[in-house]
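Fig. S4 source data, part A: sequence.
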Amino acid sequence: MAPSKILIADDDILVREAVVKILEMFGHEVVAVDSGEAALEVVSDEFDVIILDINMPGLDGFETFSKIKERNLEIPVLFFTGAGSMEYAVRAINLGAYDFITKPIEDLDLFDVKIRRAIEKRMYVLKDRAYRQNLEIEIQAKTKELAEKNRLLEQYAHELENITVNTMLTLQTALEEKDPYTAGHTTRVTAYAQQIGAAMHLPTEELTVLRRACQLHDIGKLVIDVSCIQKPGPLTEEEWEQVKKHPEVGENIIKPLRFLRREGNIVRHHHERMDGKGYPDGLTGDELDILTKIVTVADSYDAMTSKRSYKVNMRPEEAMAELRRCSGTQFDPEVVEAFISVLEKKRG
């Protein structure tokens, strides 16, 4: 074990040399200086104990001690004080000194004990400092590790969400492709809705929800018989009631997927109207969020401009006129105007 390193500052050369010999006799490494200024020049974290004379020219012991404390070295400091200067000893302790030593040194054993206790204090400080540093390093490592695990989990969850949505979209697309009249409907509705959302300056998070809701808005048709919509002519009341079930069924399909909770709500309500005459819940405009209103406009526009077995499709300008005619009753006026502005720009 390396010897302890002790710094002593005393302007009295005889006292200084005597203390150095005693400390070296006890096996310590000693650096001796003759002033407080000199002590401040050499002091470093390498020292285990500092001994300061109180009465020194220039910086006295107390002033030197204060400047050492400012460096946060946490080195125990013992003050030299004359036998008749106990008030100095009390002041030193109050300032935070570890102990004091009376001079001349008469009891070498007591002197040795005080030095060794100060060294033990320093060893405790160093161990505690090392422990805190290691703990901080360990915490940083664990935090980094946890952050990486969270990143991987988020990445996995995101990939799983995309796989789930894409699987459902594939099934819905396969259903649409069976009917030449509905092929591409979901893709077009999604594109229209995204254009409206961008025109309305929706944030990226909202556009993501909007895109997913559009991709899944007719998912309910997977499990109900909607073959009746392929027949020419109007639907019977029973056939219409069957078709009207698809928003609720769609929401029920999505409901177990908690990350699609909001999308499920949009799927359920994409056939609601501003005036409350829609289905399945008869909600009014104030009860519908902006994304639902966007999907409703995009879905209706595509239905109006797409060829169906039971009707002739409208031209774009006719469909835009119909959107405006139904603005405020079936459709949200703000959404309608945003969409028409997009369509008009595209037309030139």
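Fig. S4 source data, part B ends here. The chain has two domains: 5-132, 178-347.
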